[in-house]
Amino acid sequence: MVMNIPVRQRYPMIFPVINGSLHFFGAFYFGCALYMHFVHLRVVVANGLLLFLHGTKFIGIWSAVAQLVYLLYCTGLDLKNIVKPEDSPDASTVVKDFIQTSLVFPSSLVSSVSFWIFFCINKNMIFKNGENRSPLWITHLIYSYNIIIQILEMATSSRNYPNNTASFIGIFSFFVAYVFWTHLVHWYTGEWSYYILEKMNLPVRILFFISFYILLHTGYVLGYLFNSMLWGSDNERKIRPRTEITIVI
After folding, report:
1. At 1, is the secondary structure helix, strand, or coil?
2. DSSP letters of 53-80?
3. Model pTM score
4. Per-domain residue ranges for the chain?
5. Cα–Cα distance between 44 and 55 in angstroms, integer?
6. Is residue 18 within 8 Å of 154, Cβ to Cβ?
7. What residues form DSSP beta bridges with 2?
8. Residues 23-39: pLDDT tens digits?
């Protein structure tokens, strides 16, 4: 006889404990990573405004900041649920799902994959003369583990994706804000966020940013497929838990 038993019913405390620990230690991790990023950058860039501009010009830093805010928010929700458990998702959970699915996961995936592809092909595509102003271990803190933490986040808790209109507005707003910031940094410092942009003419640069926008949407779709693969579609989750173990008797 074969029995399908949902993992969450058999071990009801495992997933919340793992997920809550991931939120707390993930927030601590990104807080330390961003702090060390600016500490080491300050050795090279002493001016406060220039330090801020240079320190925030990469998409990976934006992704790390977004993930830090998200994980702090999740930690607050975890503490609230300990004091006053919620039987059904409330507005705060809807906000959490929106931030994670529309902003954090796509930006983490795009920043990790694109950075390391450019870095492995030719560091000059990112840094002028290939000179990284941060030590390699800090680069790993920012660009290697952000997507890993997001994969673990999806693997330990299901989420309901917002409607496509809301998600697309969120992705587009994030994209416009970053492109605006990139041009602001270039206007003030004379440097593009990525050195490869200096070698592009205007039409190619426009295509570069359009490709970046498409990649953000691709990250959103991949996140949706990954979440559905682990937990089922939104309709399936309303009927039964997706994650199961099979016991043969």
Report:
1. coil
2. HHHT-SHHHHHHHHHHHHHHHHHHHHHH
3. 0.85
4. 12-235
5. 11
6. no
7. 248
8. 999 999 999 999 988 88
* Residue range 62-84: mean pLDDT, rounded: 92
Alpha carbon distance 182, 171 (integer Å): 16
Question: Tokens at residue 172, please?
Answer: 């587009």
The Cα 60–Cα 108 span in angstroms is 7
pLDDT in tens, 187-222: 988 888 888 888 889 999 999 999 999 999 999 999
- 3-class DSSP assignment, residue 6: strand
Residue with tokens 């090279």: 44
State how far the Cα of 234 lies from the Cα of 97, in Å rounded to an integer: 13
Return d(Cα 46, Cα 40) in angstroms, integer: 11
Q: Could you give the C-alpha distances from 222 to 21, 143, 159, 170, 236, in angstroms and in order?
A: 25, 18, 14, 16, 19
In degrees and rounded to multiples of 5, residue 133 shows phi and psi of -75, -10
Strands in the chain per DSSP E: 2-6, 244-248
